[in-house]
Design a protein that fits this description.
Length: 543
């Protein structure tokens, strides 16, 4: 018997956030650190005895080593089986799909999403529930409790297990099935979208650039877009996952996917551009000379859902995170289905999807998804857009123009102030909180405050309440400012300011959202005293 019980003492700071536990890689590589967290997951979920798990990650530095540890610990804890992606690779949506179609007891995903990877960058581990979605707060709380009281963990001695070869092997009586990370996911996509229409689109000469950002979607995009759908070879760029994402920052937005943005706004632009993040759940959509904000993208997908075979019967409802623009609400209102407003973080969509109350959902932070899995899904969003373009026979810019003239345009932008002194950031939020009751009726930059509150969410499915989810100030005429502190930052505090204004007169639509938002931007500074309290004159990142 090579099973060991190792005595350990709790390690500080293992509090999982909205997306699992994320830390600098050297923190995760400390003796017992990963082991403590993995054992805490097992203990908090009733033990691993007799259970089946999916394991995989986005291929970042330490992914392969961590996978070996997880396998040895699952075996030592009596798990029946682990289904693992070849070389421990699985995109987050592909892992969610596997958890669901194999009806496992959950999954362990290794990723720090869009954060850079490497020996000095970020690593992460999260547990997903049997429904394929991120563990809800109740479960992460239990995991956290375990991390604080853990005294031992179980692990097997073993040389490295061969996870490069497909097929089944055993470790201490536990079955390990190494699967092709792409196959099941590709099959699911073929069952959702009109692949024939997309094939015909490419056959007609339609061009695409998909930037996989040296991250996990490379193999998926190559197989589906180039392999199955016939996009010209070379349409998928930066397609080989690398442990440090080619030294880049795998976050698909105009800042970090600048090369793609430059291409799309150049004379040689292809018809369609897209990118995905480290673990494949985020997406960026850009047409020729036409960047689509994630909030708009979500609204457009909802408005065109019936063009996609899987959503032909109509949507049951839609959901967006609170700070996401209200462009989606306009589509839902016109179509006559519910639009739910949830706190930031994908896990809040799970109950609505499970209960059949929502079919599509999304966040302003480049996450869009549906009830096909319980994670957001980058490549799914790209295929959705291709399906819509194929059916409508229009360019991205034409689709957007039609959408805005029909529903109005919600100009939208997010301003991030990063690594702000935590006390200053908390002070800013606290000052706003105190002033909330007196804001109604106040005129700021010519706009009248209609309502102001701190967002709290009562889950309509399980009745749980989540408080303190961001401060929102609504203006007459549809403008809005939301202030929130990030739950995923790793240094100091990140203040996010979400700015929105609405134009419903098609004749008055303008091109530059930042211009349209200038009054809202200065109102935000007046209301929250951002400059004086943070000492910053401008945001670090504008998306
Ligand atoms: C950020 C995004 C949020 C997303 C989360 C995980 O969280 O804003 O929409 O769900 O990453 O990808 P935040 O840092 O704002 O807490
Ligand atoms: Zn991600």
């Amino acid at each position: 018997m090579t099973r060991h019980v190792v005595a350990t003492t709790p390690i500080e700071g293992q509090k999982p956030g909205t997306s699992g536990l994320r830390k600098k890689t050297p923190v995760f590589m400390q003796p017992h650190y990963l082991e403590n967290f993995v054992q805490s997951i097992f203990n908090a979920t009733g033990g691993a005895e007799g259970k089946t798990y999916v394991v995989g990650g986005d291929g970042r530095y330490f992914n392969d080593r961590a996978a070996q540890v997880i396998l040895r610990m699952a075996a030592a804890n009596g798990a029946k089986k682990v289904i693992i992606g070849q070389n421990a690779i699985l995109s987050t949506p592909a892992a969610s799909n596997l958890i669901r179609i194999r009806e496992t007891d959950g999954g362990i995903i290794m990723s720090a999403s869009h954060n850079p990877g490497g020996p000095k960058e970020d690593f992460g581990v999260k547990f997903n529930n049997p429904n394929g979605g991120p563990a809800p707060e109740g479960v992460t709380e239990k995991i956290f409790e375990q991390t604080k009281t853990l005294t031992e963990y179980a692990i097997c001695d073993s040389t490295d297990i061969d996870i490069a070869t497909l097929g089944t092997k055993t470790l201490e009586g536990m079955e390990i099935e190494v699967v092709d990370p792409v196959a099941d996911y590709a099959e699911m996509m073929a069952g959702i979208f009109d692949f024939d229409a997309i094939k015909a689109l490419f056959a007609s000469g339609f061009t695409l650039c998909f930037d996989a950002m040296h991250a996990v979607t490379g193999p998926y995009a190559k197989a589906i877009l180039e392999g199955t759908l016939g996009a010209p070879e070379g349409s998928v760029v930066n397609a080989v996952p690398s442990p440090d994402f080619g030294g880049g920052h795998p976050d698909p937005n105009p800042i970090w996917a600048k090369t793609l943005m430059d291409l799309m706004f150049s004379s040689g632009a292809p018809d369609f551009g897209a990118a995905s993040d480290g673990d494949g759940d985020r997406n960026m959509i850009v047409g020729r000379n036409a960047y689509v904000t994630p909030s708009d993208s979500l609204a457009v997908l909802a408005a065109n859902a019936e063009l996609v075979p899987a959503y032909k019967g109509g949507l049951k409802g839609v959901a967006r995170s609170m700070p996401t623009s209200r462009a989606l609400d306009r589509v839902a209102e016109a179509a006559g289905y519910a639009c739910y407003e949830t706190p930031t973080g994908w896990k809040f969509f799970g109950n609505l999807l499970d209960a059949g109350r929502a079919t599509l959902c999304g966040e302003e932070s480049a996450g869009t998804g549906s009830d096909h899995v319980r994670e957001k899904d980058g490549l799914w969003a790209v295929l959705f857009w291709l399906n819509v373009l194929a059916a409508r026979k229009q360019s991205v810019a034409e689709v957007m123009a039609d959408h805005w003239s029909k529903y109005g345009r919600n100009y939208y932008s997010r301003h991030d102030y990063e690594a702000v002194d935590s006390d200053a950031a908390n002070g800013l939020m606290q000052a706003l909180r105190t002033r909330l009751p007196n804001l109604k009726g106040r005129v700021v930059e010519g706009m009248t405050v209609e309502a102001a509150d701190e967002f709290a969410y009562d889950d309509p499915v399980d009745g749980s309440r989540s408080e303190g989810q961001g401060i929102r100030i609504m203006f007459k005429g549809g403008g809005r400012i939301v202030f929130r502190l990030s739950g995923t930052g790793t240094e100091g505090a990140t203040l996010r300011v979400y700015l929105e204004t609405v134009e419903t007169n098609p004749a008055a639509l303008q091109d530059n959202p930042q211009n349209a938002l200038s009054d809202v931007v200065s109102a935000a500074d007046k209301l929250a005293e951002i400059r004086t309290r943070t000492g910053r004159n401008a945001p670090d990142v504008i998306t």
